[in-house]
Design brief:
The structure holds 2 protein chains of 2 kinds. Chain A is of the alpha/beta class. Chain A has 9 helices and 10 strands. In chain A, strands 6-7-8-3-9-10 form a 6-stranded mixed β-sheet, with helices on both faces. Chain A has a 4-stranded antiparallel β-sheet with strand order 2-1-4-5, with helices on one face. In chain A, helix 3 (100-108) packs across helix 4, helix 3 (100-108) runs parallel beside helix 5 (149-161) and helix 5 packs parallel to helix 6. Chain A is globular and about 55 Å long. By secondary structure, chain B is mainly alpha-helical. Chain B contains 12 helices and no strands. Classes of the chains: A alpha/beta, B mainly alpha.
Amino acid sequence: MVETVLEVSGLSVRRAGLQAVEAVSFRLAAETDTALVGPNGAGKSTLVQALLGILPSDAGEVRLLGHRLGPRGQLPPQVRQQIAYVPQDLHLRGRLPITVAEFVGLGWDPPGLRPPWCGAARRRQAVADALRCTAMTHRAHRLLSDLSGGERKRALLAFCVVRPRRLLLLDEAQAGLDPRAAEQFHTLLYQLRRSQGWTVLQVSHDLEMVRRTCDAVLCLNRRLRCSGTPDHALAPAQLERLYGPGWVPYLHHHHQPR
Amino acid sequence: MIDGPWLADLPALLQLPFLQRALLAGLLTGALGGLMGSVAVLRQLSFFSDALGHSALLGLSLGLVLGLHPTLVLIPFAVLFALVVNQLVQRSRLPADSLLNILYSSSLALAVLLLSLLRTPAPGLQQLLFGDILGVDRLDLVQLLLTLALVGAVLLLSHRAQMLLTIDEGLARSRGVAVGAQRLVFVVLLALVVAMAIKAVGALLISAFVVIPASAARLIAPSLGSYALLSVLIGCSGAVVGLVLSALANLPSGPVVVVVQLVLFVLALVWMPLLRPRA
C-alpha cells in the first residue's frame, strides 16, 4: 500500500475577511511530485501556508506524515523537521550579514531554544554536504543578500536538503527567475527529489514544466476544480474552466531534466 | 567638574571613582545597545527603540508628578508601552512607523503636560533627557550588569529563531518558530534595556546607542557570527572613547559618545565598498 504523506480534508481558510480556500480535500502519496495550479488570487499560496500552519484554517483537517496539524500550526518537532518550505523569495532588505553556510545551518537546527554551539560539528558537516548537493560550495562564505535570484533559490534548496525531509512545499519557487535560471532550478529540484525521496507539492504557473515533470496536478480556484494526471488536469477544457473562457496556454520550451 | 584638563591628566582622571563607574557603565550600556541593536536593526525596529526612548519621558514625568523613584515607574511603563505597541502593530493595518510616530509624539505631549503640573521645575529633568553617566552609582551598575546577563542569555538561546524571523517570517513559522512569542520577548527586552540605560544615556540619545553601532556593524560584518560581536565592540569602544574625550574636553558625555559612534559609523560606511564581493 502506498504511504500517504499529506492528507487534507475539507480545508477552508479565510484571509483578510474573504474565503480564500474552501472545502479542499486531497492526499499526496509518498515520493510523488504534485503541482498546484490556478489563476492569481485563486488561494494557492494561502493553501500552502495553511498546510504548513503559517496561516490558521477555519475548518477541515490537515495530516502531515500521519500527525494532525494543530489549530495554531502545532506539529511534533520530529515531524516539523521532516517538512521543508521554499517561499517565493526571501524578504531581504539591504545588506544582511549572514553567509550562505550560516543560512543553510538554520535549516539543520531543530526547533526550540538552544545555544549556537550545540551540535556544531554535525551541523557543519551537514551544511557542507548540503552545499555540495546543490553546487553551492563555492558560495558558502558569500552573504545571502549578495546572491543572484537563481543562487538564492539554490541556497533555499540547500536549506531544505541539509536534513533528511519527507515533504517539500514550494510556493512559486521559480518566480523572478529568468528562463535559464528557472530551468536550472527545476533540474536541481528534480534530481534532489529523486535522490532524497521527497514528496513535493509545488505552486506553479509554468504549465509546460508541470506537464513534463509532475506526477499529478491540483487545479485550484478557491475550491479544487479538478485534479489528476497532467494530461487530464491540463486538458484545454479543464484549463478553460480554471482560467476562464478563451484562455490559450502559452507553452514554454524547456529541455528535459537530466 | 574638572576644569581644562589635558591629555597628561588622563591617568589622574582615570583614578577618579565616578569616572571609573562611568566607564564601566559605558561599557555595559555600549554592550547592551550593541547586542539589542544587532537584532533591532535587522528587524527594522530602529524606530521602535527611538519611540521607546521618547515615550519613556512620559513614564519619568509620571514618576516625578507622583513623587516616585523614576526607575520604579519607568520599567513597568516601558514594558507596557512595548506590549501595547507590539499588539497595535500586529492588529492595526497601519504601517508601523506611522503608528510609532502617533504613540511617541502623543506620549511626549502628555509628558510635557504632566511636567507643567509641577510647581517647581522638575529636578534632574536635564539629566534624564540627555543622560548623566557620570552620576551612576553601584546599584545602577549592578542593574546594568544583570540586564546584560539576561539579554545575553535570551539572545544566545533564541538567536537562530530571531534570525529566521528576520530573514522570512513564513520560513520561520514553517520551521516551528513561535513567531508571536519571539517578537514579544524581544520587544520586552528592548523596553527593559531602554529603561535601564536611560539614566546613563538619556531618553533622547538612547536610540543612538541601539541603532548606530549595529548599523555600522551591519555595513562591514562578513558573517552573522561576527556581526553581533562587532556591534558590541563598536558600542563599547564608542562609549569608552567618548567618555574619555568628554572628560578631557569637559564636554557633556552622552552627546560626545554618540558623536564618536557616528564617526565609527562613517568609517564603516567608507570601508564598506572595499568589502564588495568579487564574482
